[in-house]
Design brief:
The protein is of the alpha/beta class and 259 residues long. The protein contains eleven helices and eight strands. The protein is 45% helix and 16% strand. Helix 7 (164-183) crosses helix 8 and helix 8 crosses helix 9.
Length: 259
């Protein structure tokens, strides 16, 4: 199991001769804006895992209650702080963001009053929800445009043109793998435990939060990629220096019929 490639890594790997791979949705779009001749050909998981947590018995009952309050984040000017800034703008509120580091620090700050809420994608926080200490106030996945694509399969333009059958087989194998993991969560949990070195309890909670989508249609793919790109742009996750990309030209959905 390997993490998804960044735009810079995609550019380097394409230059080295690699013509197909996996990444977070916006990375191949950023790479394409930098002249890398690739397109997105499929998407297999669509969900935003971040959530805003509050005390289960605290005074914060709705997102509007966070106006003027303190929200703990891992670090300022990070992807997750930009995410909560986007969520805040959608709710029309202006909270203060407090950099607190890891999940343990976020939870401690919430308990001792240094924060009124915190945002995290760490499954460990879910255990505190189950124990009754925390409550999920906002699912970020409910706020971003949907359908939303988080991870994609990309291929180079020349591979798509010269060997479309290979692209089809790669997509089919990947989507079948995703479908297998969806239907066999125990196996997915085993992989998570080995990769992250986590407890089975934590792995179970992490896997249960995934929104598997191995059968996305071509129309959904284009819309999901566009939504993901616009969300990242609006949240500030994509630097202003990045050349705008026409998503319609960066997606080739013809291969999804194989799924």
């Amino acid at each position: 199991i390997r993490r998804a490639l960044t735009a810079v890594e995609i550019k380097d790997q394409v230059a080295s001769g690699i013509k197909i791979g996996l990444s977070a949705t916006n990375e191949p779009l950023i790479a394409r804006s930098d002249g890398v001749p690739i397109k997105i050909v499929a998407s297999y998981v669509g969900n935003v895992p971040q959530k805003i947590f509050v005390k289960a018995d605290g005074p914060i009952k709705t997102a509007s209650d966070l106006d003027g309050k303190k929200i703990g984040v891992s670090a300022l000017n990070s992807a997750i702080s930009r995410t909560v800034a986007y969520v805040s703008s959608r709710f029309g509120i202006r909270p203060e963001f407090v950099p607190l580091g890891n999940t343990a620090n976020l939870v401690t700050a919430l308990k001792d009053g240094r924060a009124d809420a915190f945002i995290s994608s760490d499954p460990a926080a879910l255990r505190l929800v189950e124990s009754g200490e925390l409550r999920i106030l906002v699912y970020v996945s409910d706020v971003v445009p949907r359908p939303h694509s988080s991870f994609v399969i990309w291929a180079t333009d020349d591979l798509i043109q010269k060997n479309p059958d290979l692209v089809k087989r790669f997509i089919k194998a990947t989507l079948e793998t995703v479908n297998y993991l969806q239907e066999n969560p125990a196996y997915a949990i085993d992989l998570y435990v080995k990769r992250i070195n986590a407890s089975r309890d934590l792995a179970d909670k992490a896997i249960s939060q995934l929104d598997w989508a191995p059968r996305m249609s071509g129309v959904e793919l284009s819309t999901a990629v566009k939504n993901s790109w616009e969300y990242a742009r609006d949240s500030g996750s994509i630097p202003a220096s990045i050349t705008p990309v026409k998503v319609e030209d960066a997606v080739d959905s013809r291969f999804l019929s194989v799924s």
